[in-house]
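> tool_call: predict_assembly(chains=two)
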Amino acid sequence: MNQHRPFAALDIRGLKKSFDRPAVDGLDLTVRTGEFYTLLGPNGAGKTTTLRMVAGLLRPDAGSISIVGIDALADPVSAKQRMAWVSDEPMIYDKLTPFEYLEFVAGLWGIDPTAGEANARELIGWLGLGPHADERCEGFSKGMRQKVALAGALVHDPSLIILDEPLTGLDAGSARQVKNVLRERVAAGGTVIMTTHILEVAERMADRIGVIAGGRLIAEGTLGELRLKAGKGDTSLEDTFLALVAEQAEAEAA
Amino acid sequence: MSHTASLTWFAHHEFRLAWRDWLAMLTAGKPGRVKIVAVALIVFAVFMHLAAHSIVAKFADIGLETDIDRGTFVIITCCALLAWSLMMSQAMESVTRAFYARSDMDLILSSPVAARRAFAVRIATMAFSTVLMAALLAAPFINVLAWRGGVRWLAAYGVVVGIGATAAAMAVALTVALFRTIGPQKTRMAAQIVAAVIGAMFVIGLQVAAIMSYGTMFQLAFLQTDFVVSLVPAVDSIVWWPARAILGDMAALLGVLTAGLLLLTASVVIFSARFGEHAIAAAGASVGRVRQRRWLQSFRRSSPKGTLRRKEWILLKRDPWLLSQTLMQLLYLLPPALMLWKAFGRSNDDLVLLVPVLVMAAGQLAGGLAWLAISGEDAPDLVATAPLPASFVTRAKIEAVCGSVALIFAPFVLVMTYASPRDGIVSAIFVAVSAMAATLIQLWFRTQARRKHFRRRQTSSRIATFAEAFSSIAWAATAGLAAAGRWQGAVITGVIALGILFGVRAVSPPKP
């Protein structure tokens, strides 16, 4: 009997990408719909390269990427319609106001102006950008720019939001606002995939955590499952993460 | 470390940085290209010497012992003034950059080295770079004159040093004056606009004067008219010292050099002490908060293509600095506009002269705008992750560029069509072709850059820069010849222009 199963928000199979050396080396990864998934890994592990391939910013050498059931390599436009990408360096237009920036993003995604405007006003309120909504972004701090970029990612109501180090350089207040918005998005049925070096954030927010090293997924699961795999008892994610990465490094050296 | 040692050490540091900047500019930041660049420079130097030979060799015998007249002094002095205005423009750019670029300013100001000494060296380095650049550009002409007319012409190098030092000194004084009068927040843009205007002012001023007086755009003819010659001082006046020095008068050379170096020294002594304060003030100059009053309005209904086009226009419109940099090229349209105005409503065969000017300007303007729209995308990830095919985005950006060019050139073409239908139609066709060619070159050589780095676009790809210039020149020549009814020549230059395009396409980097 064929039972209807919802598509995974993201399904990656055998993904490969090399620059001078392999950056992503046969990666398999599945993120379920409605999940908050955090990708951890040491510097140069292949996290950003993986996510940039998913976002359509890099072309893989091999493998497949499926976004909510859409083959992102065969039909990138449909896949992009369903997702949003936020990089660690907020890239926005200095000469536009947050409101105009959101109008621009809504226009690019072909969102109905009325719905787009309602989303924009709501997001601007949520992220505390209200007093600056009609000020040009050129004088904004990094935190405010990051919030504008995040609002841009959410204004077209994507099913999958991919964020690369979104909390880097944010003060505690801004980080809290961003985390709240992401949590609400997941509560509403959206899927969030995020890389971070702040392990505490992963520990507190993620439903599942994936650990990448050497371009491969070396461990995946809830915090408890990762602790079990690392053979660590009731330790912090930091200890678990370091144990897993060290184990992988030893295995590669052997 | 002693004061002298610290000065020498800092000078060494500055020159090393300046050298690496030069090298990076020439190699576009790719160290592996040094050999290729060296060969290209040799070829370029040979080409420039050949070109210089065809232009100035016939003047090599002019000397002070010959029966020299005021007309000749006027022309030599105007050439020196042109060089001076360009050096002044470059020096102002350097001073402004030094004020506002944070790079090592924090390190210098927080170190125990006396800031005054550090900035004195920095001003001297800027002057040296300005003089070096001018000397390199003038070298082919001076060398040819020295080869054909004797070593006395080498004194012209001394004049370059003298007027270069004067230009650097005045650039520092003018920038500091701007800083004190309009404040650090506005100085950056104002200084860059002033620099660009100074660079263009001399040529344009001469052209305007020539058109107003004689209805011609040829400055040399204007400069040699009895009217101009009757206005200038006698041949033994001090005004002609730079011209005399160029012709090999050692006393005049000594005077020019001494005056220039004295001015530079005075500028270093007076302004180096305050340079640090101004740099700190520049760092503290926050970007003003500008409100747009869009919050009260609703989102507009627009297609993705329309959204992209509007974004390009808004960004350009809201950036006065960028707008000034882009439209600065249009300053050169002022003389043709004046000529059109004078010819309006009556048949004028001279209008054919305007056709290549318009075509050339359209190519250059389109190149700048295309770089901004295609390479200077400040949110590349956003546009790349939008659910639109890449070709769709590119088309929208090209439309934005072509729309802007059409908007600017349409009035010229319309007035021209009214005055001379054939010239108007030829202009319309070749303005479009030249703009499209420049846009395509920018498209083929696109790189990822920030809009604020617009001034560095020439260094990102030397091939694209030269190709854009040569393409515009070739299309301008084609248009000029076609407007003059010289079809055979027009076909030849048209084929050359197409050859440039195909050649550039062949060597353009593969798509990422």
